[in-house]
Amino acid sequence: MLKYLAVTLLSNLVLNSARNDIIAQLQKQLLPLGGFKTLRTDNPVSIGLPAIEQSFPNAAFPIGCVHEFICPAAEEISAAHGFIAGLASRFLQLGAVCLWISHNRQLFPAALKLFNINPEQVLFIDLKRERDILYVVEDALKCNKLCIVIGELQQISFKESRRFQLAAEQSRVTCFLLRNQPRITNTITAVSRWQVRSLPSELQDGLPGVGFPRWEVELVRVRNGVPGKWTIEWKVDAFVEVPEVVTEQEYTHIRKVG
Amino acid sequence: MTRKPELKDLAFVLVLPDHGRMRITESSWPARVKGIHAGMLLADAKVIVPDIKVIDDTPELTAKLLTRICTWCIRYTPVAAMDLPGGVILDVSGCAHLWGGEEAYLKDIVYKLKGLGYHIRVAMADTIGAAWAVCRYGKIKAIIPVDGQKEAVLDLPPAALRLEAGTVERLHKLALYPIGRFIHMQRSVLRRRFGKELLLRIDQALGVEEELIEPVIPPSPYCERLPCLEPIVTKVGIEIALEKLLETICARLQKEGKGLRDAVFTGFRVDNQKVHISLQTNYPSGNVKHLFKLFEVKIGTMEPASGIELFMLEATKIEAVSPVQETFWTGNGNLQSRELTELLDSLQNKYGNDIVHRYLPDEHYLPERSIKPSGSLKEKPAVAWRTDKPRPILLLKEPQPVEVTAPIPDYPPINFRYKGKLHIIKKADACERIEPEWWLDGGLHRDYYIVEDEAGKRYWLFRAGHYHETNKPAWYLHGFFA
Question: Does the interface ipTM go beyond 0.90?
């Protein structure tokens, strides 16, 4: 007990900046344990949204891990599809392959081209039963020649998601799980949880007509990062952040604890 | 001849000792012209040509040489057979057109073989028997027309039918020559006097009876068998058999630079039943581990019952493997990556072949027709993807009818009701008219509108056809924009 006290006393003596250094270093050591492993062989991917990337540890969009997109209502599903397609387009460079695993798929492949993805690079796995998706996603995540695996499913347990995370960490494949109207939004091992809602589009100078797709992208949860909410537009072939002031209170109110 | 060109214009004979005498087994063309035939005694030949060159015959030499000629002939047809003595039979079905017709084909064979120093006679017919007869006893270089076998052999001596010496002699004794003399006789009569063989040979020459030849290089199917000493009933036993068969077949495929696309694994049961499992791959594969994994899932469906005594693995579809460049870093793969095709194989093996879809653009205006499924991972888009018109990220398989309030004639709707919910439209784009392709099917044109409701959700609505005084056009929801 005495010894312990001495240590605390000592640490109090250390300068503030030095302490911050130590904490930062310890945090850095903790990151790989939390799923934010970065390997030298990884090709860093920039999603073209610095504001969102800042929310993640190391200020980089995490790859080789699972991202979860929650869609509480059926109407929001197209917005989530659009945002995921936009994110995936940043990964799918130079002939890389994406697997889109779903049951009752509605996605229109030709529209992917408008999100800067070559539709022929996307392989759609359309399964007859929803429960097969879990198996296929896990199998796909073990194949390191894939770039992205996108799975549309409703329910997933913590245990199942852990298998995804372990497979993704090993193979460095990034996984997007699109959870369409889950019965319960249980915690899973994903490094982030997103929610995308459509926003009314706006054309320049108040012109009439429908503008670029605009969404409210909320990073509901991010491990070791800072959650946030942004207004994002998909402009021709890239994301653009629409400047908007988000007050602190607004998102602490929505943010879930856990 | 190619080895000893000095013999080319020389009269020489091959001899073998026979009952203490030297009998000629073969004579060269210059010698034959002078009347020296196989079967003569060397002493008699020396009377005709005193300075004839004599070479000792090695009995197996002819067969060896013929085998080599047969192998050489594989450039003309894959099925080449030896026909002792001194002949070669080629199955040329479907080969001649590659040389520009039968005439040119025969000419090429004769020219090439003559160039090698052989004196040859050729004949081409529908049956082996007729070709053989015309070749040896008929005109030089003859092509017998289709169904002309009978006419072709009518004037030939009975020996042309490949009969035994005794039968030929008897026919000659009865003045039954040429063949035309007896070919029309009653079959029962011929059989009684000359035996079944004559009838068989006639039938073979005319094409009534089928005749098989034994190719010098047998076409070997990619098929491996594994007989078992004791009937196998356990899963482990089946797995061991499968692995062994896969190893042998894959070793062969690898040697030949090929891979299998389809394979069938069959077990022959003790009770005379067959059980089999099959697989398909996306890319020619010779990977034992991968193929085993694909089969392994299905082994459970093989019912051994009282035991399987013979296993057979057959590769039913083979394709050449284009060599894959090995990347030394595990970077982003592409569609041709072996790991990816193997993943797809195992998924298709488990959930059915129709689960993997890949789409390519198609030149149609209707959105549901603008994409076409691609069967192969290698296929590249023939036309560019269109990006000039907005298309919804989600497209309904069937357009859903909606109730719409819309000002006429061509304005976008003010609101619409979908699944009982009213959506008030705040923003809309001008319409895009898509005409149905009349050469494919009729139907009304569609006027598509991109609309946005008050919640910011974007929809793709269309009106089918024009407004009309009596019947209102139907409105449909066809997709959702992001």
Answer: no
